[in-house]
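Re: duplicated header lines in exported structure tokens

Our pipeline writes sequence and tokens for each protein into one text file. With two proteins the header for the second block appears twice in some exports. Here is an export where it did not happen, for reference. First protein block:
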Amino acid sequence: MLKGQKTAIRSLEEDDIDALYKWYNDQEVNLWSSGAWPLNTLLSKDEIAAKFLDGSPDTYRYAILDENDLLIGTIGFKELNIPGQSATLFIVVGNKTYWGKGYGTDALITFARFLFTQWNFHRISLDTWDENIRAIKAYERVGFKIEGRQRKARFVLGNYHDVILMGLLRDEFLALHGK
């Protein structure tokens, strides 16, 4: 288990499925985690279990816990590029009572440190949509920099929005947060 100042990160377990089912079918959680509202699809518990526990060989998903070991979200990476020592991160704080309290930032710092020091990644990236200001600010606190924009690439609530592309290099992260 990885330990941060406010969070811990562990493997996902079967007991997590009920919470994941609730979050991934929640309008507000989906809106801010990916700009995906209306949802592309509503997932059943069996589909959630297959996606999160069985997964795909190129996606790594983990649970985010609070100080009392309560599941509050998920974090992980995909698009692993072994020669380039890079991947794309994703995070969802599904328990809305933890929004805006630094838990997502702490989980990102903890997970980024793990990827840079244990997986020997050189670079990690992520993206969000242009109106997700709270996430952009959290990513910047971790050290991510805006690297680009895909114009009108997400359709959210009847309007097209830009996707904000962000990246973080190992040296930048370690200079900000140490080993």
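Second protein block, exported in the same file:
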Amino acid sequence: MREYKNFKEIDRDLKLLKLQKEIDKEKVLLSYNQTKESLSPKRILKDAADSVLKNRYVLKGATSVLGFIGDKFK
């Protein structure tokens, strides 16, 4: 526990704590809004569509490469 020598030190620490409380509150609100946005139906559908398209191109590319490698060993 900290020992204070005067009221000025106490006031300073109280101001710092108040500012830290405001910062923490803003962080929570920001996190809440980001989570809310990421869980919206529109965002979920967009992310799912992006994932399907990426997997489609990866699968197509891998099939082409594997087919090309397989042709070399025939």
